[in-house]
């Protein structure tokens, strides 16, 4: 599933058999965003819902709370970028950190650095991990890395699977949470055991922590303790923290110094990055403290959705996981994605309720099943369980 709304406009507009022009992908995207933006009740605010003017205004207004806007702009990574690196390293409990324009670049750099240090270019990770599904084989095509899979179950590997895996690997990469499996997490004891198993095999441990910010409630541990299990951690600023773009790789002083060299070689030494850096600092100030409340309310929303589908007589559905491990979870329904997308759009347009956004066909298994991802953040805190059940009942009526 794509990270955000797809945006691939056609070069021309075809005609339908009736003579009316078909909507181009760009027009369809704009229509969806306009409808969802206009909804009065939504479970989550998303960056794509805002205009350029709104995002720029927010940077000016909120940016003044986190950085001196009378300072000069950054030049090749100083200024606000350095401050974001410092703050992120502090939050994660690492001595150093480096800002990257994308997480794809940050993790390639981290893992090729570890490959050089361990002498082993093999990375053990889950087949549903982001680099395997969403990055066009970047590890092998660009960085010369090889991947292996200790398990293909829809969860992170166990300590036994790591210890008993038949191939040697230099790095164990764990995505926390495992997004494409349903934003799932192991227990704290399971995570500790997996890390210890990797170390027993003389492997280093890297966390794909794009969404590690919201794992503390599930683990019952502070962020520093969670991140501190790994040798290096990558975090994202636009997926949970409401930022514009960008990522930070945190680790030891020597690792980050080496990573900065590779960042330059990969083309990530951008001239100015202050909008992304400011947005990241704002996220650390405003969103990070609120995440436990989002996670707690996601459990209320998920439970109410389950009740709503049962009350509406839907013959089969799944809310996964039960309860959610973070403030995001999956919903599965036995309909084609096109039907569900049309109902989601219609509900938002007619009643001003944005319950679901994009549905996707079942990536594996039988046809006729579709899945969506539900996120609960600040706007969703206003929804009661009854609000959720009512919205589900209305959504199901639109499917008939």
Question: What keywords describe this structure?
Answer:
single chain, 400 residues, alpha/beta, Aspartate Aminotransferase, domain 1, Aspartate Aminotransferase, domain 2, 2 domains, 7-stranded mixed β-sheet, 4-stranded antiparallel β-sheet, 15 helices, 13 strands, 42% helix, globular, Threonine aldolase, pyridoxal phosphate, PyrdxlP-dep_Trfase_major, PyrdxlP-dep_Trfase_small
How would you describe what is shown here?
This protein has two domains: 25-45 and 290-399, Aspartate Aminotransferase, domain 1, CATH 3.90.1150.10; 64-286, Type I PLP-dependent aspartate aminotransferase-like (Major domain) (Aspartate Aminotransferase, domain 2), CATH 3.40.640.10. The strands form three sheets. It has a seven-stranded mixed sheet, with helices on both faces. By secondary structure, it is of the alpha/beta class. Helices cover 42% and strands 13% of the residues. The radius of gyration is 22 Å and the shape is globular. Mean pLDDT is 94; it is low at 5-17. It has 15 helices and 13 strands. The protein has helices at residues 25-38, 52-63, 80-92, 103-118, 130-133, 138-143, 159-164, 188-200, 216-219, 223-227, 253-265, 274-286, 291-311, 337-351, 385-399, and strands spanning 41-42, 96-100, 122-124, 146-148, 171-175, 204-208, 232-236, 247-251, 318-320, 328-333, 353-354, 359-361, 370-375.
Write the layout of secondary structure elements.
Elements: H1 25-38, E1 41-42, H2 52-63, H3 80-92, E2 96-100, H4 103-118, E3 122-124, H5 130-133, H6 138-143, E4 146-148, H7 159-164, E5 171-175, H8 188-200, E6 204-208, H9 216-219, H10 223-227, E7 232-236, E8 247-251, H11 253-265, H12 274-286, H13 291-311, E9 318-320, E10 328-333, H14 337-351, E11 353-354, E12 359-361, E13 370-375, H15 385-399
Parallel strand pairs: 1-11, 3-4, 3-5, 5-6, 6-7
Antiparallel strand pairs: 2-8, 7-8, 9-10, 10-13, 12-13
Biased composition (Polar residues): 1-15
Region (Disordered): 1-25
Protein name: Threonine aldolase
């Amino acid at each position: 599933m794509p990270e955000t709304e797809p945006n691939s406009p056609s070069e021309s507009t075809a005609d339908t058999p009736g003579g009316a022009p078909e909507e181009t992908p760009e027009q369809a995207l704009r229509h969806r965003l306009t409808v969802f933006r206009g909804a009065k009740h939504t479970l989550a605010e998303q960056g794509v819902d805002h205009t350029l003017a709104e995002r720029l205004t927010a940077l000016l207004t909120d940016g003044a709370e986190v950085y001196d806007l009378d300072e000069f702009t950054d030049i090749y990574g100083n200024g606000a970028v350095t401050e974001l690196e410092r703050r992120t390293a502090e939050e994660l409990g690492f001595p150093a950190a480096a800002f990257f324009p994308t997480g794809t670049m940050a993790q390639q750099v981290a893992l090729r650095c570890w490959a050089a240090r361990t002498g082993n270019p093999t990375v053990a990770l889950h087949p549903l991990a982001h680099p395997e599904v969403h990055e066009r084989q970047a590890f092998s095509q660009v960085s010369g890395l090889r991947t292996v899979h200790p398990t293909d179950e829809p969860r992170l590997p166990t300590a036994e699977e790591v210890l008993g895996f038949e191939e040697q690997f230099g790095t164990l990469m764990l995505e926390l949470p495992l997004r494409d499996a349903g934003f799932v997490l192991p227990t704290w004891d399971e995570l500790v055991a997996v890390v210890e198993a990797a170390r027993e095999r003389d492997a280093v441990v890297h966390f794909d922590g794009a969404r590690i910010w919201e794992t503390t409630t599930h683990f019952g541990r502070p962020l520093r303790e969670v991140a501190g299990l790994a040798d290096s951690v990558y975090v994202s600023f636009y997926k949970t923290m409401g930022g514009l773009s960008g990522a930070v790789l945190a680790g030891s002083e020597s690792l980050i110094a080496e990573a900065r060299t590779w960042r330059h070689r990969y083309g990530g030494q951008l001239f100015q990055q202050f909008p992304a850096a400011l947005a990241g600092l704002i996220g650390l100030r405003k969103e990070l403290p609120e995440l436990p409340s989002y996670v707690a309310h996601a459990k209320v929303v998920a439970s109410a959705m389950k009740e709503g589908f049962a009350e509406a007589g839907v013959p089969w559905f799944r809310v996964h996981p039960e309860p959610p491990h973070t403030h995001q979870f999956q919903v599965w329904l036995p309909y084609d994605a096109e039907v569900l997308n049309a109902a989601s759009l219609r509900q938002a347009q007619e009643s001003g309720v944005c319950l679901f956004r994009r549905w996707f066909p079942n990536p594996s298994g039988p046809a006729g099943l579709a899945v969506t991802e539900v996120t609960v953040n600040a706007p969703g805190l206003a929804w009661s369980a009854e609000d959720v059940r009512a919205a589900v009942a209305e959504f199901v009526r639109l499917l008939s």
